[in-house]
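In this supplementary section we document a worked example of the pipeline. Step one takes a protein sequence of length 320 as its only input; no multiple sequence alignment statistics are reported here. Step two produces a three-dimensional model, which step three serialises into structure tokens for compact storage. The input and output of this example are shown verbatim.
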Amino acid sequence: MIEVHVYIQNGQRVYEPVVLGSITWETKRKGEPGKCSFTLLTDSILEIEEGNAVRVDVNGQSVFFGFIFERSWGSDGQVKVTAYDQLRYLKNKDSYNYENKTAREVIQMIASDFQLQVGDLEDTVWPIPFRNEKNKSLYDIILNALDLTMINTGKIYVLYDHVGKVTLKNVESMKLNVTLDQDTAQDYDYKTSIDGETYNQIKLYYDNDETKGRETYVTKNTGNINKWGVLQLNESIEKGVDGQAVAERYLTLYNRPTRSLSVKNAFGDIQVRAGCLIPVFLDVKDLDLKNYLLIEAVTHKIDQGVHTMDLELKGAGISG
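The serialised model returned by step three reads:
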């Protein structure tokens, strides 16, 4: 039996309200904060409002810490509450101009400016030569830095909130021993596509202010162009970037169909969060999956002591 406790702090008072029905906790690997939703039975004692801190414990372990952002009421006297972790504040917009900073240093800079609590941030090592980010969300600024790091080092880093602390980890250090197989995954959907992030021709360009000219770098895969037609990625690059090398890396990454696996109503485990690598053993159509896959998104649902989770996965053996 799963034991769940929800605590809400309003000023100096901490409440443990009665939760009706299910509690959901959602995480996504890129661009979204952690989200927790639940319904409360109101009474004359409970006084909560937007901005109140929320903590959720599962079997004695804290799994979520965030703040109330939304409440809604129905005629039944119940209140639905939506809370987000502190990555919600990365939706703020700002402008940054920086040189020779690693993605880790960019995160530290933004966290300091917006008073975010920081935990363990792995060293991303590679310094970004130059970026001029104008009126962009803080999320986009950070994700651009992490994407550039991935393109230039081959390493994927995941930004998330760990119970109230901004955390950055290499996915290789986020491997779980929770297995998905025919017994634990109740239902799944497998899809291949060239309609999304598939490109067989890469065109990068840099507008040189000194020469007033445009420098262009192109690479392509003729075989896949003959099969699929031209699927071109056209993108600007910053000063100092090795355009041809980056174009070749892009082609290596994107010159393939995307493959995705959605798993519904898997047996729940609170360790599982977006960004983790999870071993999957499934016989899916033309692909016998026996790999660690990357969790793009996961929604945990705990209802009357029953814990299930829905997952979106991709990665080795499924993304290419």
